Amino acid sequence: MRTERGFTIIELLVVLGLITVIAGISVPVFIESSARNRVWTAAESVGANVRQARLRAVSRNRTFRVAFNCPRPGSLRVLVVTGDALVDDAEDRCDTYLVAEGDGGEITMPQGVTFGDVPTLEVSPRGLFTAIGGAVPQIITVTNGDMVRIVRVSAAGQVALQAEGDEVINDEEEP
User: Which CATH class is domain 11-163?
Assistant: First the structure.
């Protein structure tokens, strides 16, 4: 009779095999979940900054802009419209060192997340949106690989977030 206790090599290989199978299943799920989380967080950030620009415009009775890919691709800034075309339309207006009073800081999307080529949104003191070089409602598509979330900005200032293919809930109808 054997009195020593321990595991055989076969038992250890079986346990290692099970651990490998479980890890092989869980790692891709974790990676996909992380990508989805980055897209949802970035879309929420875009929506929050658009709402913040509207709140600033209404509460300060000034026009604000939400400039995308400003100062670099994958970032955005909320900028006050000063009324001086030399300042407002300057090519280096987005540079963070040229901050006018009332400008917001640079918001950078998480790594791998993009929102494409979006026109600058302008919000009036009445809270109404227009798009410089585009149309309103504006659809902002936030992507990371196959993960997509849409931010829809209406002319009246409503911001709706939706996953690709989902219907917008509680959003106004556009003419």
Answer: alpha beta
